[in-house]
Amino acid sequence: MNRDFTIDFYLRQTWQDPRLAFGDMFFGYQNGKIESLTVGVDYLDKLWKPDTFFPNEKKSFFHTATTHNSFLRIDPDGTVFTSQRLTVTATCPMKLQLFPMDSQKCKLEIESYGYTTADIDLFWGKDRKDQGQVVGFENISLPQFRPVGYRVNVTRATTSSDEYFFFIRVYVRLYFEVLLARNLGFYLMNIIIPSMLIVTISWVSFWLNREASPARVGLGVTTVLTMTTLITTTNNAMPKVSYIKGLDVFLNFCFVMVFASLIEYAVVSYMNKKLAQRRERRRKQIEQRIPTEMPMYNQITSNADAKMSYQNMTLINDCASLPGKSSIQQMDMLLGGPGQNPNLSVTEAMMPECDCRTIPLMQNPRLVTDQTFWPAPFMKPKRASRTCRSVTPSKIDKCSRFFFPMLFLTFNYGYTIATIHYHWCQLKDVNCKTAVKVEPFELTSYRFTNLCINKTIATTSSGSYSRLWAQFLFERQFSFYMIQIYVPAILVVFISWVSFWINPESAPSRTVIGTLTILSETHLLMSTNRRLPPVSYIKAVDVYLIFCYLNVVLALVEYATVAYSKKKYEDEEKNKSKNIFELKLQAPDLLRDARIDECTCKQEIFLVAKRSPKCTNCCTHSRVDLIARIVFPISFLTFNFIYWTVLLSLSGWRTYENNMEQKAC
């Protein structure tokens, strides 16, 4: 992108030179009078003419095919009229703070190079009255911009070329200013939407098991590298400016989002490791404090494999609130299991130093002898810190699943007939078709199909002119794009489906397939649009490539759903396995223990068994893969059928229209 604009226009100038007036001269035709004298442009160098130039011009040239595109006309009163076709590339100091939703004002300045206001006066239109009609600005279409309006005006320009001689020169300067609004379509399809999808892919990491380090790290690194490539390629095509553009804010925020997703897993992994080390260290300390001998609370003579059903163990403060047997008898039954002697009682001996912080039952090899169960000792450990109780790796992942999308969505809410006639053929035949003969030829990307010639009248401010035009119809050869774009895109989508047949346990394999297919589709989309002109509308190939891109993204999202569903399923299976268990004394976990308020050491603490609820998870991870194996191919085949049907239909209709135009010729 260069901060300039190129305009192809007809520069028409008129001035009056009394020396060229020829009055009502009689030449013996047209009632003896000449309305105007049209001569070749070669005579222009022999006449006086204004030294017009463009102050903000970078380069310009006159058109010389097939001859010099200019003419000279002299009226009887000495009025000289010239028209020249030229192309000017002028500077346009664009302000890109709002890019790509910006509007630009580009100006073309016209000024006399040596004549000051004391020598010459420049103005728009005839007699300064029709300034709004001096510029023909209708039916203009640009690929990247939409013309909104224009204006013409006159100003004064002061130069300092003669300051050494203590003179200040003032010149008349005309300028033509056009307002252009940038079309967002190209940047939306090639930059904004891919960036949003890459950020969305980075959120898949929050739904994967935190133990799957290769999958989560690979996904995070891949999204960071993809965003880096996208930012680099985008800025290489932009002018080097010192301020921050609107697109820079968006892309850098997307980069921060994917980078924060990777940092989030680093925090989760570090906390998970530290918590595991802390639990292991606490368990070792407790095992070292256990006395070698403890008074036996109960003798159990039944089978040690006696099992009971429980789901959640609840600590009860008020033992008198339970109906039926006394608290001591209920504790005996829980410790002894079913079928035990109800007369067995719990020894009233109590350790002298106890605390209301309860510790779950534990089983230690030193405490089990001949099927004898021991209750957990009451100790006085330190109170768990508030940070350990409120921030866990699982909570960080759960908060990230909500916080990252909400932050990204919030940010997104936050560019003349009287002189000469032209006609085809030797005779003035309107239906002449043999004036242009096309020999057989071959093109690499197109196939010539038709030719249409016609004649029309072009009306400009200088008069009406005869215009001939020839229209050539070409059809694009499809084989190159089929081999280079469509077939690779289809194969990449097929490769993404391989993930549905891989074991859900192999997280690195499925994640690598997903990320590599996304990178391939991103590269294919960007390289294709780099070869095509940047237009504002959506092309047919854009629709196809974007759908393929969504397919591979959804394939990766599907694995995130499978991994999350698998984790939930395994958690429910673990809870089911606790319904029937062998009563064992468990080691105390000081991080999960709860302190009972206002209790005394004489209160009895026992466990209450609850019935486990029914499992409501009807959609397992294996079923998700089975459904994906069917839904993804069917949806892709359906899209291809609709896409190619519509494309062929529109192509056939365009061919029909061209044939009708050919008949009209």
From TrEMBL:
GO CC, one annotated term: chloride channel complex
GO molecular function, one term: extracellular ligand-gated monoatomic ion channel activity
Membrane topology recorded in Swiss-Prot or TrEMBL: Multi-pass membrane protein
Annotated transmembrane regions: 184-208, 217-238, 250-272, 478-502, 543-564, 630-650
Residue stretches making up the Neurotransmitter-gated ion-channel ligand-binding domain: 2-183
Domain of life from the UniProt record: Eukaryota
Location in the cell: Postsynaptic cell membrane
DNA-binding recorded as keyword: no
Keyword Cell cycle: no
Ranges for domain Neurotransmitter-gated ion-channel transmembrane: 191-415, 485-583
Similarity annotation: Belongs to the ligand-gated ion channel (TC 1.A.9) family.
PANTHER family, alphabetized: NEUROTRANSMITTER GATED ION CHANNEL
Protein name (database record): Uncharacterized protein
